[in-house]
Amino acid sequence: MVAASQPTEKPTSFILPDLVSHCKFPLVYHPKGDEVAAEAVKWLDTNCPDLTPKMRRALHGLQAGELTAYCYNTTTPERLRVVSDFMNYLFHLDNISDGMMTRETDVLADCVMNALWFSGKYMPTTGPGKEQPKDELNPGKLARDFWARCIKDAGPGCQARFKETLELFFEAVNIQARARDSGIIPDLESYIDVRRDTSGCKPCWALIEYALDIDLPDFVVEHPVIKALDQGTNDLVTWSNDIFSYNVEQSRGDTHNMIVILMKYHGHTLQSAVDYVGDLCAQTIDAFCENRKKIPSWGPEVDDMVQRYVVGLQDWIVGSLHWSFMTHRYFGTEGAEVKKNRLVKLLPMTA
C-alpha cells in the first residue's frame, strides 16, 4: 500500500477553535464602559506626543477600555477609569517593547518601576549601570499618572502584588528580547514559563482587588487553589491570545507564540497546532470550574472577598474571548465575521 504524500503547499488559512461556545460564563459590560473607554484612550493619545498617525489609529482600534469594561464590570466609574488607563498603557508597553533590544527593555523597566516606587515625584537613580536621565521618560510619566490615582484607594497587599508582578512582566520581556536578539525560538516549557509573565495578566489580577475595593490576605493569595485559579485564567487569556494574534504576528515574523513552537519542534501543521492550543484553552476553562469547587472557607468576610475575586477572574476569561473579536488588533474590521465563521486567511509577510 502506497503512503499518501504529505501536502507541500503552505497553508493560506486556518479555522479557529470555538472557544466562545465552550465558555458558558455570562458576559457583562460596565454601564459606564463606553464613556470611560473614550476618556482612557484620549488620556494615552494626548500624553504620547511621539505616536505616529498609524499608531494612533491602532490605539483607537485597540478598544482596551472596552476590554476593561467587560473584565471589571461592577467597579465604580472612577476606578474603572484608572484600570482602563492601565490597560491602554499595558498594550502601549507591549507595542513599544516589541521592537526593543535587551538594553532598551532594561531602561524601559527602570523608568516605569521608578514611577511606582517613588510615586510622589521623579527621583532618578544614580547607581552604576542604573543611571536614569535627568528628565523622566514618557513611559515613566504615564505610569506615575495612573499609579498616583490608584494608590489612593488600593490596599497595601494589592499595591505590593501589582508592583511585584509588573516587575516580573519586565523581566520576562527582557528574556523575550534576548531570545529575539539571538534568533532563538525557545522550547515549549521555557516559552510557557516566560509567557505567563509577558502576558501582563498578573498585574491585572491585582487590579481586580483594587476594582472590587478588597485586599486579599496573603494566606488566601498563596493558597494552592487560588494560585491554580489565577494561573488557569492567565493560561486561558494568554494561550487564546496566541491563537488570535498568530496571523498578525506571523506576517511580521514574530516567533513569540505557542503555535510557532508547536510547528517548529513538535511536528504540527498550522491547523493541528491551532487545534492543540484550542484544546488546551478548553481544558483550562474546565479546570477553572473544577478548581472553583475546591475553594476552602476562611470565614464569611474573607469568603465574600474570595468569591467576588473569582468572579473577577471569570469575567476576564469570558470578556477577553469576546473582546478579541471586537478589537481591530487581531482581525481588523472583520472580527464579527471571523467570530461567526471562524475562518482566518493568512496575511502576507511584511517583515
UniProtKB/TrEMBL annotation:
Its EC number is 4.2.3.-. One of its GO terms (biological process) is isoprenoid biosynthetic process. InterPro entries: Isoprenoid_synthase_dom_sf, Terpene_cyclase-like_2. It holds the Pfam family Terpene_syn_C_2. Keywords: Lyase, Magnesium, Metal-binding. Its cofactor is Mg(2+). It is an enzyme of class 4 (lyase). The keyword S-adenosyl-L-methionine does not apply. GO terms for molecular function: metal ion binding; terpene synthase activity. Belongs to the terpene synthase family. This is Terpene synthase.
